[in-house]
Amino acid sequence: MKPRSSRKTIAFVLGGGGHNGASEVGMLKALFERGIIPTLVVGTSVGAMNGAAIAGDPSLETVESLREEWLSIDTERIFGGSIFSGAANLIRTRTHLHSNRALRVFLEDVLPASRFEDLKIPFQCVAASIEKAEERWFFQGPLVEAILASTAIPGVLPPVEINGEHYVDGGIVNSIPLSRAVELGARTIYVLQVGRIETALVAPTTPLQVALVAFEIARRHRFARDLAAIPKGVEVHVLPTGESKAPSLSQLRYRDFRALARRMDSAYKATSDYLDTKLSMSKN
Q1: Residues 14-25 pLDDT 10s
Q2: Angle between helices 46-56 and 60-71 (to 10 degrees)
Q3: Which of 35, 39, 89, 273 sits at 20 to 30 Å (Cα–Cα) from 57?
Q4: CA-to-CA distance for 174 and 109, rounded, in angstroms?
Q5: Hey, CA dihedral for 88, 90, 96, 99, is it positive or negative?
């Protein structure tokens, strides 16, 4: 099921980041407007959701539909209840705040296919195996189940059981899966990340900030290592979001969907400027 290695393979790598994944929609619009079409898509967490939609029909029309879906998102549609019902669910389950039933319905509405094999271009997504403590890549079989596994934020959504094994959010093991695109033969790679690698970290001053900074260091270290290991002949473009603020506790507000339009528009402008500069340089 792995795509054949080819010098023509153009990969879109979509990273994780919860509601910050709206930035990827703006990036996608900028790419498709310039005729940059992927032949391979890999994604983590929210990037798996966005990536599967694009793999189903890699077109500007799909991007516009994805934007509308993002703008329709609210806590009820994704998490299926209030923070109070979430607290009650946590007391009952002792492991997670929300059921993934609402997210399942959302994915079934948004995704263009029910199986990986029915997508127009190859697509893979990653989740973290609890039992094996390693990344697991999905590229065949039921699509929604794999994406639910890739987006299962620990403590927020339940682990997803697939063939007797339990999975949680792929961002834990591979937040920006650049190395997977290289492994699958991509020669030109566009990295759609949500902004966390663009801004400098600052020393934490509270226990929650300590946890956030620790996770950011782990996330960035993996990506920096993968970026440094890119083989000769592989071209990588890390697309900008246009965001300038350093990571803050606002990232923990997973139910806050107020800035979606701004994130999409900011990433669209920043990525458009980046691509236009690169295209201009290649012509000279």
Answers
A1: 999 888 899 999
A2: 140
A3: 273
A4: 27
A5: negative
